[in-house]
Design goal:
The protein is α+β, with helices and mostly antiparallel strands and about 150 residues long. The protein contains four helices and six strands; from the N terminus they run E-E-H-E-E-H-E-H-E-H. About 5% of the residues are buried. The structure holds zinc ion. Zinc ion (ZN) binds next to loops.
Length: about 150
């Protein structure tokens, strides 16, 4: 496919997709082209802005997490760990520590008996499983909260 920038007699600019340059010429000659804005059949091609779509998607660079100077030169694994620990810190600083009351509090929030908020705390495996069984969204943190936050 080829994309042509087209111009009608009234100066409206629009795009047209054609199988080839010949296809465009043929459609134009048979007055099959018309301006989508005003319907004018007087269409001409804007030669400078043509481009071809070769049908292959352009390779896109994968999205990179925001890097900071301290991450320069570090290997991707170390950077991932750094980002993860930041995410964890944020989670821990923005949530309320309810300690061993966690299972009870999580339940109250779930059943609208307590104001909705992010909480953290301790739960035994059994308590965790009970919460999950009740359909209460809880997440297990793979590492214990660090001492610096307390
Ligand atoms: Zn027009």
């Amino acid at each position: 496919m080829i994309v042509f920038d087209l111009l009608c007699g009234d100066g409206h600019r629009f795009e047209g997709w054609f199988g080839s340059a010949e296809d465009f010429a043929s459609q134009r000659d048979r007055s099959l082209l018309s301006c989508p804005t005003c319907g004018s059949g007087q269409i001409s091609r804007v030669p400078s802005a043509t481009r071809a779509n070769l049908g292959a998607p352009q390779p896109k660079a994968p999205a990179q997490p925001a890097k900071t100077p301290e991450m320069e030169g570090k290997d991707p694994f170390a950077i991932a760990q750094m980002l993860y620990s930041r995410m964890l810190d944020e989670l821990l600083t923005k949530s309320e520590d309810v300690g061993k009351e966690f299972p009870a509090e999580a339940r109250k929030i779930f059943y609208n008996e307590s104001p909705a908020r992010a909480i953290r705390g301790q739960a035994t495996s059994e308590e965790h499983d009970e919460l999950v069984d009740e359909g209460i969204p809880v997440a297990r943190l793979p590492v214990p909260p660090t001492g610096k936050l307390n």
